[in-house]
Amino acid sequence: MMGSSISRNSIMLGLFAIMTTALIAGTYLGTRDMIVEAQRKAQEKALLEIIPGERHDNSMLDDTLIIGPEADGLRLSSSQQIFIARQQEKAVAVILPVTAPDGYSGAIDLIVGINSDGSIAGVRVLTHKETPGLGDKVDLNKSDWILSFNGTSLRNPMPAQWKVKKDKGYFDQFTGATITPRAVTAAIKRSLEYFQANQQSLLAPLQTTPIGEENSDG
Fold it and tell me: Which has the closest alpha carbon to 123: 152, 98, 146, 107?
């Protein structure tokens, strides 16, 4: 009788595990698309803060280039996306990922919008671990300091001035904090230098004909 009871309990536990797994799987499958869509909308909102919708007629989320740690100057730790904004199929701006590895409390990840003329469209900090009340002022939710880069370029100010004022440069630092704004300023400058060096490929015309079919006779 004891053996029969153990077997019966084992079967019941097995059936319970199967039912629980099926329920979890069903819940995941039922909400997966909603989660993906919510993530997509959040990402699109962040991009539109830098390149507003009236400036382009394409979906930046669907017009991308893949870039990896080998990208000179961007100092990425993994492969990421470059987003391209187009108006009537002509590239008007790009949004580059860039990392400042030398923040006070660790790496600072940013996205930098650069107009086709080489000027900054906008910058946003995505992740950081900077000190609350000091270094966290790189976050737009804490301070408007990051907006001071809007409209700047490697011509205004000149490259030698892409430093904080404490280092005899153009940009303000925070009261009581220099390391964080110094790291962010240098990272943004590197993104501009990357854009300048790769401008032709970043702003290349939209590929409307599948590669390999350009010379097809139909």
Answer: 146
Distance CA 12, CA 192 (A): 63
* Sequence ranges of the domains in the chain: 1-50, 55-202
CA 167 to chain centre: 28
Token readout for 82 is 């470059």
């032709």: which residue's tokens?
200
Cα separation, 140 vs 124, in Å, equals: 7
Return the C-alpha torsion angle 146, 64, 62, 210, nearest 10.
160
- Decide: residue 146, CB within 10 A, 0-12 exposed, 13-18 middle, 19+ buried: buried
84 CB contacts (<8 Å, ≥6 apart)? 58, 60, 63, 64, 65, 91, 93, 94, 95, 202
pLDDT tens-digit readout, 40-90: 666 788 899 999 999 999 999 999 999 999 999 999 999 999 999 999 999
CA-based nearest residue to 108, from 183, 2, 206, 203: 183
The structure's pTM equals 0.78
